[in-house]
Write a structure and sequence with these properties.
With 982 residues, the chain is mainly beta. Among the domains are: 170 residues, Jelly Rolls; 91 residues, Immunoglobulin-like (Sandwich); 280 residues, Beta-galactosidase, Chain A, domain 5, CATH 2.70.98. 10% of the residues lie in helices and 36% in strands. The strands form twelve sheets. The protein has a 16-stranded mixed beta sheet that branches. Strands 30-29-28-27-26-33-32-31 form an eight-stranded parallel beta sheet. Strand 26, helix 1 and strand 27 form a beta-alpha-beta unit. Helix 1 packs parallel to helix 2 and helix 3 packs parallel to helix 4. It is globular, with a radius of gyration of 31 Å. The relative contact order is 0.08. The structure holds 1-methylethyl 1-thio-beta-D-galactopyranoside.
């Protein structure tokens, strides 16, 4: 029986919550349960000092009460605060343990009827963001702390037929100092509220230890009964014919192991005279052997994502159907692990992860990142006054989630610095559960953890760690301890905007080195906030709600949008994370299984041969099942050089997340070398000649080619910065972003000077038009000299373009985004291309884009980003752009330089670059009725500099001579056939 407090907990008390009951595991019970979710009365005040409005409005529970889309149901004054976003900054003075006076309060009230009120019962809150005082029928039950952790109150003897539950949520308290995660501040009752009868002799808690050993399953179940005994409960798993004695380890020889690849669950029943509870359990043992992370005795590689809980309209509450859909989507994209950044998830997430199969790092609700901004002075992690609260957070997470097979690591928290409480928390973890290793990236000495974890380390550093050649720690004993640990990247590859570049480089390292446990992409989800506008809905980010202090769009950095639509980076990730890695060289196919626990019989190989005229053949490639981590080399089917051979890994049979035949990954040979082999459709009705070229005599730029008129013909060296371009990589010596370098060189504002325009025997078949221009930005003497040489060749008109730097290009700034030619066509457009697709690619992203023939409207080819930026380029070496009833057909080849930046591409947009530069939100982009085209000879990678290394050296485009050609094949609107639509 918990003691009911007389006063609410003071908001500046750094201690654990008061009046709450111990946390227990979650399960299904047969005793009466009532959900209190639904519509509650609600009112709001901007600070506790200010009087509440007299009138009450209503609000749905669970939600975050500040969400703009709840306006219709809001308090009568219509005001209930607004979301605010900061990454590390506390939105008030750092003055621990005090919250500010401007401390919004949301008051909730709910009346409920119980025709037959139970004498003993518990009231459970899944999560209340903020600090709440809870009253039932006028009696103060206690105060909550720990926003994403469960809270329960013993309400025995308080329930009546008519009941009134009151919850007063203060947005800020001392506990806020422990919850400084990089996310919106979103107070409210964010998870379900449940009332549960607690019969005398019922089951209070169950502790399950389901191990997998060399001789099969071993199960230990310890029930904790409401009468404080462990006895008198029947414990059984009917499917296995197993009956157990409380507390006694029992071999279960028939059990199958649980793994993320094959998540076998059994139903455990614990029955007393008063209550039967059922629990889904799985047998598995986590261990670290010779510095290698293992589950069930074999090494496991984590191909994971960091997952926050966010909903664009509801805030921190994610309804069950959305959670289910997102986990199915993860499975379909070959993700096998989730770090619950940076707090324990809604428990339904873990139920689903058990069922579908995910390795989960369960992270405690602890982050004090804002103290890092002041050199960690006063950090609660190093202040004994906070120890009890931190231990309590550990206890609540472990006790709630202890029985989930999916949880394979505990994480102490995120970015909370170091100090005495790290040891205290580690001790609390170990005293409650010794079956899972402990993770905390903040402990770089690794004195208190079991695995060594880093964030955003450069692939070179990861390679050194993989080889065990990392720099030594000063303390020899700790160094030896850390060297014996497996290594995990708890965050890497910041998936913000266009990017992240370099996924393949990381995965190659994970595949090759057993010390590397793999890692977790930052992050699964963008935290966009949806608002209603006159034109429909739009997405907003930090600063859009008038917050004086904010981190702009840093909160929009996911593989899927807030609405859970996949971004291009998710499709690429699926390819990089594929369970079978395919590599094609010459006429051979190399297959590597990334499966750790199961053979490859769930997958089959399929091929397709396609040329410009369409699909020429298809079939399957026989492969005997590969053992876990096995590899094999197979012969490729014959395909002519004018064709592309595509190999697909497909799922055999249906799974809980995908139908049979689901394409898991794809690999293909390169596009044919000859332009004639790439071009699709009927031959040109008429051949272009030099007479078809109309150049502007003042600039040398192309104005018309045959029937096709164009404007804004220009050389381009920059791009509208991506989120990554706006930052310097962590490995850069100078803290200048790429975008700043381009701007310093004036690449966004290039001016051209016509040096000469010569027409040499243009009536003769060998005639040519030679144009020379010099192009550079204002205020600098870094220029490029361009030679444009137009000739009639077999099959059309060929423009050879040479771009050479001249003047002074300081070595440290001399990086370009591209060397491309831009122009614009009248009318809305459509693109057909041969190259890589259907998705976008840049030299270091676009792993999912494989060779072939593709098509789509300009509108369909836009990769929308919440904050507009460079996106959506398609690698292409032949293309037909149709706009305004005319077509332009172009072959694109780059002669030099060689290497990954030599990746010819086309970008088509329904708005100009100037519009893209000017827009701060996607909904500000309005098509202008034209088709804006850029043809790139070379282009830079995108990297992941927003958080982590810059563009890797091979993908940087250093200022250097570039040569290539544009071959214009026909100016006529010509038909096409059988192209694959995007
Ligand atoms: C890292 C944080 O752990 C994560 O929550 C998120 O903020 C990410 O950065 C950036 O989006 S911490 C940082 C020091 C890299």
């Amino acid at each position: 029986m918990t003691i009911r407090p007389e006063q609410p907990q003071p908001l500046d008390d750094p201690g654990p919550p008061i009046g709450t009951a111990p946390t227990v595991a979650s399960w299904t019970t047969d005793v009466a349960e009532w959900t209190l979710d639904g519509t509650w009365d609600f009112r709001w005040s901007p600070s506790s000092a200010q009087r509440m409005d007299e009138g009450w409005g209503s609000i749905p529970v669970p939600t975050s009460f500040v969400m703009p889309s709840l306006d219709r149901d809001a308090a009568p004054a219509g005001d209930h605060g607004r979301p605010a976003y900061t990454n590390k900054w506390y939105p008030f003075p750092i003055d621990p343990p005090h919250p500010p006076d401007a401390n919004p309060v949301g008051e909730y009230r709910r009346r409920f009827l119980l025709p037959d009120p139970p004498p003993r019962a518990e009231l459970r809150f899944g999560g209340i963001e903020g600090a709440a005082d809870v009253r039932l029928n006028g009696v103060l039950l206690g105060s909550t702390r720990g926003s994403r952790l469960p809270m329960a109150f013993d309400v025995s003897g308080l329930l009546e037929t008519e009941n009134l539950l009151e919850v007063r949520v203060h947005q800020f308290s001392a506990a806020t100092y422990l919850e400084d995660q990089d996310a919106w501040w979103l107070p409210g009752i964010i998870r379900s509220v449940v009332l549960r009868a607690r019969p005398v002799g019922g089951v209070r808690d169950v502790r399950v230890r389901a191990e997998w050993t060399a001789s099969g399953g071993v199960l230990t179940v310890v029930p904790d009964l409401e009468d404080d005994s462990h006895g008198d409960a029947t414990i059984e798993i009917a499917e296995l014919g197993a009956t157990l004695t409380a507390g006694r380890p029992t071999p279960i020889p028939d059990a199958l192991p649980w793994s993320a690849e094959d998540p076998v669950l059994y139903t455990l029943r614990v029955r007393t005279a008063a209550e039967t509870v059922t629990h889904r359990i799985g047998f598995r043992t986590v261990g670290i052997v010779d510095g290698v992370f293992q589950v069930n005795g074999v090494p496991v590689s984590l191909r994971g994502v960091n997952r926050h809980e966010h909903h664009p309209r509801l805030g921190r509450h994610v309804p069950p159907e959305v959670v289910t859909a997102e986990l199915l989507m993860m499975k379909r994209h070959n993700i096998n692990a989730v770090r619950t950044s940076h707090y324990p998830p809604d428990p339904m997430f873990l139920d689903l992860a058990d069922r579908l199969g995910f390795w989960v790092v369960d992270e405690c609700d602890v982050e004090t990142h804002g103290f890092g901004e002041i050199d960690w002075r006063g950090n609660p992690m190093d202040d004994p006054r906070w120890e009890a609260a931190l231990r309590d957070r550990v206890a609540r997470m472990v006790e709630r989630d202890k029985n989930h097979p999916c949880v394979i690591l505990w994480s102490l928290g995120n970015e909370a610095g170091e100090g005495c409480n790290v040891a205290a928390m580690a001790d609390e973890f170990r005293s409650r559960d010794d079956t899972r290793p402990l993770h905390y990236e903040g402990d770089q000495s690794s004195a208190h953890v079991d695995v060594w974890s880093r964030m955003y380390a450069h692939p070179d550093e990861v390679a050194a760690i993989a080889a065990g050649t990392e720099p030594a720690l000063a303390d020899q004993a700790l160094d030896a301890r850390r060297r014996a640990m497996p290594f995990v990247l708890c965050e890497y590859a910041h998936a913000m905007g266009t990017g992240p570049g370099g996924l393949t480089e990381y995965q190659d390292l994970f595949d090759a080195h057993p010390r590397l446990m793999g890692g977790f992409i930052w992050e699964w989800l963008e935290h966009g906030v949806q608002v209603d506008t006159d034109r429909g809905t739009a997405t907003r980010y930090g600063g859009d709600f008038g917050e004086p202090l904010h981190d702009s769009n840093d909160v929009i950095d996911g593989l899927v949008s807030a609405e859970r639509s996949p971004r291009a980076q998710l499709t690429d990730l699926a390819q990089v994370f594929a369970p079978l890695r395919l590599t094609i060289d010459e006429a051979r196919l190399h297959v590597l299984s990334r499966l750790d626990h199961t053979d490859s019989s769930r997958y089959a190989l399929r091929y397709r041969i396609e040329d410009a005229a369409g699909v020429r053949g298809s079939g399957s490639i026989p492969m005997a099942p590969l053992p876990p981590r096995g590899r094999v080399t197979l012969d490729l089917p014959d395909a002519p050089p004018s064709a592309v051979l595509t190999i697909e890994v497909v799922q055999v049979g249906e799974t809980a997340w995908a139908p049979g035949g689901w394409v898991v990954s794809r690999s293909a040979t390169a596009v044919p070398g000859e332009i004639t082999a790439r071009r699709r459709g009927v031959p040109p009705a008429r051949r272009l000649t030099l007479a078809d070229i109309d150049l502007d005599p003042g600039t040398g730029g192309l104005r018309r080619l045959g029937e096709v008129e164009m404007t804004d013909w220009r050389l381009m060296l920059d791009r509208v910065p991506t989120d990554n371009d706006r930052h310097a990589g962590w490995d850069e010596i100078l803290d200048f972003s790429y975008a700043e370098r381009w701007r310093l060189l004036g690449l966004h504002d290039l001016r051209s000077r016509l040096v000469s325009l010569e027409r040499v025997s243009i009536d003769h078949p060998d005639g040519e038009i030679r144009v020379r221009t010099v192009v550079g930005g204002p205020a600098v003497d870094a220029r490029v000299s361009c030679r444009w040489r137009w000739r009639a060749v077999d099959g059309g008109i060929r423009l050879d373009l040479t771009v050479e730097p001249e003047g002074h290009w300081p070595a440290w700034t001399a990086h370009w985004a591209r060397v491309g030619v831009g122009f614009s066509l009248a009318g809305e457009g459509r693109l057909e291309w041969c190259g890589r697709g259907p998705g976008p690619s840049y030299p270091d992203v676009g792993q999912a884009a494989t060779a072939g023939w593709f098509a789509g409207t300009v509108d369909e080819l836009q990769e929308r980003t919440v904050r507009p930026q460079e996106a959506g380029a398609r690698a292409a070496s032949w293309m037909r752009v149709k706009a305004g009833g005319r077509a332009l057909e172009i072959g694109l080849d780059t002669t030099s330089p060689r290497g990954p930046v030599n990746d010819p591409a086309i970008t088509v947009r329904p708005w100009s670059d100037a519009a893209l530069w000017a827009a701060a939100h996607d909904d500000e982009l309005i098509p202008d009725g034209r088709t804006h085209v850029v043809l790139d000879l070379v282009r830079a990678g995108v990297g992941t500099a927003r958080c982590g290394p810059g563009v890797l050296p091979a993908y940087r485009l250093v200022a250097q001579p570039v040569r290539g050609s544009l071959q214009f094949l026909t100016p006529d609107a010509s038909g096409t056939n059988g192209d694959r639509h995007v």
